[in-house]
């Protein structure tokens, strides 16, 4: 019985399993802190975006040519509309800096432009020097989960259903963690 209790305690320290048909949430170790990102809102204004202490964030990297993004972005928009306490959703377009083209794409899929940003300064992804990128582009789309302390906790590639019981359980796991 002592062994079973230790196993349960160890399992509680790990996030619940969350995945899609092609991918699963991958824990990133060692932890890296997400620095503030210099981005651009779709109104053309510069935005410094960084993790807020005590909040978690989903940082989604997407492109207008990406078929899976057409499913992923509306799901993230629905999650964002729920306004869950302590959760932020950022969607960063990686393939174009043409704000009109980005807005048209978002309009076609019912995604509010205020949750989306462009990366003209290569702050998140540097297409000319991937080693200098803040976030790694493993596959498109990719969503990083940033924990309450601003650390990159993990990622999932492809269109993930964050509204599913498994997605909700993963978000709750990180939202319920104590601020350290």
Written overview of the protein:
The chain is of the alpha+beta class. The protein has a single domain (34-175), classed as Glutaredoxin (3-Layer(aba) Sandwich). Helix content is 25%, strand content 22%. It contains four helices and eight strands. The protein has helices at residues 2-12, 69-81, 99-108, 165-175; strands at residues 26-27, 37-41, 46-49, 56-62, 87-93, 116-118, 142-146, 152-157. It has an eight-stranded mixed beta sheet with strand order 1-8-7-4-5-6-2-3, with helices on one face. Strand 2 (37-41) and strand 3 (46-49) form a beta hairpin. The protein is globular and about 45 Å long.
Give the tally of β-strands.
8
How far apart the termini lie comes to: 31 Å
Reported for the largest beta sheet, the result is: 8 strands, mixed
Order of helices and strands: HEEEEHEHEEEH
* Unreliable spans: 3-9
Lateral strand order in the biggest sheet: 1-8-7-4-5-6-2-3
Structural classification: alpha+beta
CATH superfamily descriptor: Glutaredoxin
Number of domain units: 1
**CATH class placement:** Alpha Beta
Strand coverage percent: 15-25%
CATH topology: Glutaredoxin
Taken from the alpha-carbon principal axes, the silhouette is globular
Question: Mean pLDDT across all residues, rounded?
Answer: 90
Query: Can you count the helices?
Result: 4
What is the radius of gyration?
Answer: 17 Å
